[in-house]
């Protein structure tokens, strides 16, 4: 176990150096997503409990049980997804676990071949996701950062929540061009500054090349013609 000295990136990741001088990256605690999940579950449980007391209904009594069970499972998953840490040195990276300013680094180093900056366009056409991967010598990918971009609105750190919970992640600098489908060097200028900062930091520490990818969502299926109704 070790402690990370205070220091934050634009992505809200904590950054420090271990005693050997290696870079340490800690994911931020997904407090907003956890609150966004727990608060509705507690409200539903209270309402269900009151209905059970007033109406003496076994169905209403089961509502708090299901709501709290769902919340507990979801909170555990979100907490796990927000507990990752990485230690980085030239040509190698290893994964760990974080809680607060503490982290527990793994024992196995993985050779790093490249850093990939990838954009995924949303099927709705209303935004995109930008991700930063470290690719190992065997081709396996380790995702270190994901930022969600709403076109014409804002960019937020992905903390594990989906749909309405996706907007509970912390705000990061807006992507300059969230609808750009570039898959070359120009993608760096289209993403959020927080994504660019993370990619440059990993490239400098790992001393590997930076690659670019863009995944464009397939067009929506054609709408079926309305069937003619016979009276």
Provide a descriptive summary of the structure in words.
This protein has 231 residues and is an alpha+beta fold. It has 2 domains: 163 residues, no CATH class; 50 residues. Helices cover 29% and strands 31% of the residues. It is built from 4 helices and 12 strands. Strands 1, 2, 3, 4, 5, 6, 7, 8, 9, 10, 11 and 12 form a 12-stranded mixed beta sheet that branches. A hairpin with a 5-residue loop joins strand 7 and strand 8. Helix 1 runs antiparallel to helix 2. The longest helix has 25 residues. The protein is globular and about 65 Å long.
Outline the secondary-structure elements.
Elements: E1 2-3, E2 14-17, E3 23-26, H1 31-55, H2 58-81, E4 84-89, E5 92-99, E6 102-105, E7 110-121, E8 127-136, E9 141-150, E10 155-157, E11 171-172, H3 187-190, H4 193-206, E12 210-215
Helix pairs in contact: 1-2
The overall pLDDT average reads 81
The helicity comes to: 25-40%
Run of helices and strands: EEEHHEEEEEEEEHHE
Number of strands: 12
Provide key terms for this protein.
single chain; 2 domains; alpha+beta; 231 residues
């Amino acid at each position: 176990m070790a402690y990370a000295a205070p220091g934050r990136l634009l992505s809200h990741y904590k950054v420090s150096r271990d005693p050997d001088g290696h870079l340490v990256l800690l994911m931020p605690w997904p407090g907003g997503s956890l609150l966004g999940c727990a608060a509705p579950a507690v409200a539903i449980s209270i309402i269900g409990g009151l209905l059970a007391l007033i109406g003496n209904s076994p169905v209403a009594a089961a509502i708090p049980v299901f709501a709290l069970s769902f919340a507990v499972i979801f909170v555990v998953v979100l907490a796990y997804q927000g507990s990752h840490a990485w230690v980085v040195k030239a040509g190698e990276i290893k994964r760990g676990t974080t809680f607060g300013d503490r982290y527990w680094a793994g024992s196995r180093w993985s050779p790093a071949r490249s850093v990939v900056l990838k954009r995924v366009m949303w099927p709705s056409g209303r935004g995109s996701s930008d991700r930063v991967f470290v690719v190992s010598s065997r081709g396996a990918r380790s995702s270190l950062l994901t930022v969600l971009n709403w076109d014409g609105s804002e960019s937020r750190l992905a903390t594990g929540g989906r749909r309405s919970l996706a907007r509970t992640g912390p705000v990061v600098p807006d992507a300059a061009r969230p609808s750009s489908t570039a898959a070359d060097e120009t993608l760096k200028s289209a993403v959020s500054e927080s994504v660019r900062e993370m990619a440059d930091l990993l490239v400098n520490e790992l001393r590997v090349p930076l690659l670019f990818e863009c995944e464009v969502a397939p067009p929506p299926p054609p709408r079926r013609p309305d069937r003619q109704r016979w009276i």
